[in-house]
Amino acid sequence: MTSRVAAAIDAAKAEGRGAFVGYLPIGFPDLATSIEAAVALAENGADILELGPPYSDPVMDGTVIQEATQAALAAGFRLRDTFTAVRAITARVEVPVVVMTYWNPVLQYGVDRYADDLLAAGGAGMITPDITPDAAGEWIAASRRTGLDRIFLAAPTSTDERLALIAANSTGFVYTVSTMGITGERAELDAAARTLTSRLREHRGSDGEDLRACVGIGISTADQVSSVLAYSDGAIVGTALVRALRDGGVEGLAETTRALVAGTRPTHPN
Predict the structure, then answer these.
(1) H runs (alpha helix) in 53-180
(2) Cα 198 to chain center, whole Å?
């Protein structure tokens, strides 16, 4: 099956630019607004939408995202709302939607049931930050059955053996973590991201295809987007978008998205 996520990255490349992957939590500030926000993200230039169901123990998330997800939980977010949101968003935009989820909720829901419900809602795949390919047999089988993309994380500390395993089992792209630690904005991106991407490219992707690497964690300006796209296939932005939504609503988010997406082009206004 053709990966819609890989196709979106390739389409951006064909236009002479890198892909922009935008993250937002589902249910913040409320479910209806989070759906409008995701649609605005797509309509203002995002190539791939990364949506995060709120989780009670978000070990990888920085303060801005943690506060947003806690607010969503307090407002009554339920796991089934994930599929409601994905269905509503994919009915309105063509941009592929991937769910970034911690593994415990998927396990509790049932791996096959989760995959089936995500596919039925129009979802394109899952990013699973806290499970490695060697522990994800059930998910790998479910994704092969449904055609959903499985996106694993690679970190600067990953061994060559681990990177080979991640590359061989990821589809769509590999989520390349630029720095160790939690998500958030940083004034300068760690040079480790460049080295890690280079190491990843020594391996072939799933089914022997060219590996696509998207870099995330710490990207918050158009210049940083441009910088990571000099050596990767896509830039992933989360905190800056969540802050824009929190402070300026959907309109503020749209404006910030346009500014960041400008960095995907070879030359962009400062």
Answers:
(1) 63-74, 81-90, 103-109, 111-120, 137-146, 160-169
(2) 20
- Residue holding tokens 């926000």? 37
Cα angle for residues 14, 17, 22 (degrees, 5° grid)? 115
Predicted model pTM: 0.92
39/250 Cα distance (integer angstroms): 9
Task: Specify whether the CB–CB gap between 249 and 242 falls below 8 A.
Answer: no
Q: How far apart are the first and last CA of the chain?
A: 40
Using CA atoms, how far apart are residues 34 and 37, in angstroms rounded to an integer? Answer: 5
Q: Where are the domains of the chain?
A: 4-264
Could you tell me which residues come within 8 angstroms of residue 58 by beta carbon, excluding any fewer than 6 positions away?
65, 66, 69, 102
Phi/psi for 51 (5° steps) reads -110, 130
pLDDT at 223 over 70: yes
- Residue 87, both tokens: 């269905």
Q: In this model, does residue 239 exceed pLDDT 70?
A: yes
Distance between CA atoms of residues 183 and 168, nearest Å: 25
Q: Which residues carry out catalysis?
A: 50, 61
126, two tokens:
């899952």
Would you say 167 and 200 are in contact if contact means Cβ atoms under 8 Å apart? yes
pLDDT on residue 148: 97
Judge whether 74 and 29 are in contact, CB under 8 Å: no
Q: What CATH topology corresponds to 4-264?
A: TIM Barrel (3.20.20)
In order of 50, 150, 160, 162, the CA distances from 21 in angstroms are 7, 15, 26, 24
Please tell me the distance from the alpha carbon of residue 91 to that of residue 94, in angstroms, as a whole number: 8
